[in-house]
Amino acid sequence: TTRVIEALALNHRPRRLPVALDRASYDVVIGAGLIERAGALLAPVLPQKRVVVVTDATVAELWLPPLLESLGDSGFHVRTVVVPPGEKSKSLEEFGRVTDAILEQGVERRTTIIALGGGIVGDLAGFVAASTLRGLPFVQIPTTLLSQVDSSVGGKTGINTRWGKNLIGAFHQPAAVLADISTLATLPAREIRAGYAEIIKAGLIGDERFFAWCEMHGATVLSQEPEPLAEAVERACAFKAAVVTKDEFERSSEGGRALLNLGHTFGHALEAELGYDGRLLHGEAVSIGLRLAFLLSVRLGYCPQADLDRLTRHLESTGMPAWISDTGEAFAADTLLRHMTRDKKMHDGKLTFILVRGIGRAFTCRDVPEAAVRAVLIEEGC
Ligand code: NAD
Ligand code: MG
């Protein structure tokens, strides 16, 4: 795979996806071999050739050297801060360590923070950029499929607290996103599948044709053939960028960013129950959650059974987790329901869910009976 991607990098033209927001606009650049060209790509969009690269130890070993070389070649003054890999780094403690390191090294108001890594590094470094000196320029170089199609677009940054995930944070838009698909060559297959869940989610929410494209090309995306991989990243990013552009601050309670939570209410409950310990990746939980959201929509009479069957077939044929039993863990309906009701206000035993009227037709439903959700969980063997 690496050889194929390297060969492709030579003649692959990066795709540029403009994200136009009210007060800021930037490009998401998608392609192979972008890290080697990062210096040239970033020089025109950054206010100053001073940057601090924040990355995790795993990514530092793999992808920091070519980035440093490229930035150095373009005359950048670069410092680096390395954090441990894993969700634990999205903490107040690590936030403190990173800001201390940056302030100690000397930071100017126009110094850019570059996040090199997955969503964890992106969220942490983004929040560091949003808050240090009340806001520093920020660049994302996402190195996981999930961060390329999801977390690097949209401007949400933040850290976790013991009260829950992402409870402290800020909206802080990047000056540029470089989604270098070459970096995915070193990513474990399991992480690729996790990112793929968020890709098909885009089709399931609002683009039936994109889901049909995934049915045709999903297997080659998962085996990392460069062309379909770049196309999938581009289409999923474009979808998210369009949603985010219309609802930058998640103010719309109907359509808008809320729809991006399709599959996430079930998914979060599974994740929360296992305690984010690596047994179930976020994308794996979302993959199952997507099927459960369709199942619930069918049981409530909103969605044809055929669309649920189509989704189940696609998940199963690509080796994606589809059923709660695919986790290999046992869950009780009651505890899962408690996770779902905890972060949501229940009104008269009714819950708010993102449901579907079919593939590509997601909507917000405010009166889902708790009993219907319980019935779905019991049907799944909980
Ligand atoms: P991650 O950042 O932990 O990366 C997964 C693992 O892969 C890590 O161990 C990392 O070291 C390793 N890795 C990263 N790139 C690699 C590469 N190219 N080769 C080999 N290994 C590599 O996890 P993630 O799935 O990218 O992100 C998850 C985080 O993203 C969560 O904290 C979630 O809350 C957040 N998120 C944020 C948003 C948002 O809008 N801001 C959206 C979705 C998810
Ligand atoms: Mg998600």
UniProtKB/TrEMBL annotation:
<feature type="binding site">
    <location>
        <begin position="183"/>
        <end position="186"/>
    </location>
    <ligand>
        <name>NAD(+)</name>
    </ligand>
</feature>
<protein>
    <recommendedName>
        <fullName>Multifunctional fusion protein</fullName>
        <ecNumber>2.7.1.71</ecNumber>
        <ecNumber>4.2.3.4</ecNumber>
    </recommendedName>
</protein>
<comment type="pathway">
    <text>Metabolic intermediate biosynthesis; chorismate biosynthesis; chorismate from D-erythrose 4-phosphate and phosphoenolpyruvate: step 5/7.</text>
</comment>
<keyword id="KW-0456">Lyase</keyword>
<comment type="function">
    <text>Catalyzes the specific phosphorylation of the 3-hydroxyl group of shikimic acid using ATP as a cosubstrate.</text>
</comment>
<comment type="similarity">
    <text>Belongs to the sugar phosphate cyclases superfamily. Dehydroquinate synthase family.</text>
</comment>
<comment type="function">
    <text>Catalyzes the conversion of 3-deoxy-D-arabino-heptulosonate 7-phosphate (DAHP) to dehydroquinate (DHQ).</text>
</comment>
<feature type="domain" description="3-dehydroquinate synthase C-terminal">
    <location>
        <begin position="195"/>
        <end position="346"/>
    </location>
</feature>
<keyword id="KW-0547">Nucleotide-binding</keyword>
<keyword id="KW-0418">Kinase</keyword>
<keyword id="KW-0520">NAD</keyword>
<dbReference type="GO" id="GO:0003856">
    <property type="term" value="F:3-dehydroquinate synthase activity"/>
</dbReference>
<comment type="subunit">
    <text>Monomer.</text>
</comment>
<feature type="binding site">
    <location>
        <position position="282"/>
    </location>
    <ligand>
        <name>Zn(2+)</name>
    </ligand>
</feature>
<comment type="similarity">
    <text>Belongs to the shikimate kinase family.</text>
</comment>
<keyword id="KW-0460">Magnesium</keyword>
<keyword id="KW-0170">Cobalt</keyword>
<feature type="domain" description="3-dehydroquinate synthase N-terminal">
    <location>
        <begin position="81"/>
        <end position="193"/>
    </location>
</feature>
<keyword id="KW-0479">Metal-binding</keyword>
<keyword id="KW-0862">Zinc</keyword>
<comment type="pathway">
    <text>Metabolic intermediate biosynthesis; chorismate biosynthesis; chorismate from D-erythrose 4-phosphate and phosphoenolpyruvate: step 2/7.</text>
</comment>
<keyword id="KW-0067">ATP-binding</keyword>
<keyword id="KW-0057">Aromatic amino acid biosynthesis</keyword>
<feature type="binding site">
    <location>
        <position position="156"/>
    </location>
    <ligand>
        <name>NAD(+)</name>
    </ligand>
</feature>
<keyword id="KW-0028">Amino-acid biosynthesis</keyword>
<feature type="binding site">
    <location>
        <position position="165"/>
    </location>
    <ligand>
        <name>NAD(+)</name>
    </ligand>
</feature>
<keyword id="KW-0808">Transferase</keyword>
<feature type="binding site">
    <location>
        <position position="264"/>
    </location>
    <ligand>
        <name>Zn(2+)</name>
    </ligand>
</feature>
<feature type="binding site">
    <location>
        <position position="198"/>
    </location>
    <ligand>
        <name>Zn(2+)</name>
    </ligand>
</feature>
<keyword id="KW-0511">Multifunctional enzyme</keyword>
<feature type="binding site">
    <location>
        <begin position="143"/>
        <end position="144"/>
    </location>
    <ligand>
        <name>NAD(+)</name>
    </ligand>
</feature>
<keyword id="KW-0963">Cytoplasm</keyword>
